[in-house]
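Open question from group meeting: does this chain pack into something compact, or does most of it stay loose? Before anyone orders reagents, we agreed to write out a predicted structure and look at it together. Recording both the input and the output here so the notebook holds the full record.
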Amino acid sequence: MRSEIFTIIPTKIKSDYKMQDAVVKKIRSKIAHDKFGTVYFVSSFPQYDVEYVTKLLAIFEKEGLLSRVAKGVYVKARKTRFGVLYPSAFELATDIAKRDKAIIIPIGETAANRLGFSTQVPMNVCFLTTGSSRKLKLGNRTITLKHGAPRNFAFRGSLMRDLVQALRSIGENNITPENERQIAKLLAEFPEKDIIKQDLLLAPVWMRKIIERNIKE
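Structure tokens returned:
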């Protein structure tokens, strides 16, 4: 494997095998000591040549040190006798958003599950993002990031931003007393009440009515 790694080193540094070996060992050691669930991009190692790191991560995948979840995105997954354990979809999407300096919002069943309206974990986990659209594979699950319109990110607080998406998934005519109790619970736990009142102005009218009657001063 050592000879295979050296063949991917750019020509300009092939003469110094000791330096190459030190770089390989340094990156391998970092990955080995990082916690399971850590996500890696080519940009995770900015001090090294981009093409070199790209090919090196691919080799680490072949060795089983990393798992590839999308082009240029790898994760240190835990392998057990029950299968491969990946980080949660939300953790992975959050790490990608941080790398892209983007904001993400869970949508559809993902939002409903995340806010406690549903116990069913969707197989296709979906987010709106201010970054680029993409799909990732976590075992038999899919993470979909869709570029969203700016109005979806106009809320000041994260609660109302996510709550609007969850209620949209449930639908105006399907709101149950149990759903309203969960809304009241979420609102009661949110510390900044003034932000909720301001964000309410951005919510659809039917959601605003439901949320307002569940706000407890």
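Observations to bring back to the group:
The mean pLDDT is 87.
The CA atoms of residues 170 and 176 lie 10 Å apart.
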